[in-house]
Amino acid sequence: VDNVIVRGQGEDKTILAFNQQGQGTGGEGLLVSSGKGFLIENLAIEDAKGDAVKVNGCDGVTFRKVKVSWTGGPKETNGAYGLYPVLSKNILIEDCYVSDASDAGIYVGQSENIIVRRNRAENNVAGIEIENSINADVYENTATGNTGGILVFKDGSLPVQMSACHEVHHNVLDGNNTPNFGTGTVAG
């Protein structure tokens, strides 16, 4: 359906915990395939077996004040992606916190018209990743303790082959030299 809203009462009050999620259930904490309009805000997501929040093929995606973590610290068995909009457009990711993802804390791929601002990514393999996308503005973020802080690139193996018009500025990158604990493409 269009215009899906998932709103909590704050990251310390509304916690979606997936530590009891069964193997073979698909893995995502939340998987969204909304045509138009998806907003998630003011909550925490913990210990998804796979990606914490994956949004696929949506026009108008907002992540605001969402905290994603794997509570056991950085491990190869953690979910790959924290916040994961893909094949989408008109994306805003702001004031979020993501830690301990085994691939990218904040990942935007094969998408267009993207703003990633005022987020904190720590202890992930990649803190923030923009891949095969157009028109991303990545600013005022803090990436610390990741294997790599901010990555912007084009992967030749993906179906959507585009990467252009990105601005990455006014970010704080510090101590991004955590040993690589991932197994995905970026970890390689």
Poorly predicted runs of 5 or more residues: none
Strand content: over 45%
Kindly report how far apart the N and C termini lie. 37 Å
Helix content: under 10%
Number of helices: 0
**Largest sheet composition:** 12 strands, parallel
- The chain-level mean pLDDT equals 93
- Cα-based radius of gyration, to the nearest Å: 15 Å
**Principal-axis shape:** globular
According to DSSP, the number of beta strands is 18
Q: What string gives the helices and strands in order?
A: EEEEEEEEEEEEEEEEEE
| Helix-strand makeup class | mainly beta
What does this structure look like?
Strands 1, 2, 4, 6, 8, 9, 11, 12, 14, 15, 17 and 18 form a twelve-stranded parallel sheet that branches. A six-stranded parallel sheet has the order 3-5-7-10-13-16, with no helix packed on it. The mean pLDDT is 93. The chain is built from no helices and 18 strands. Helices cover 0% and strands 49% of the residues. It starts with a strand and ends in a 14-residue tail after the last strand. It has 188 residues and is an all-beta fold.
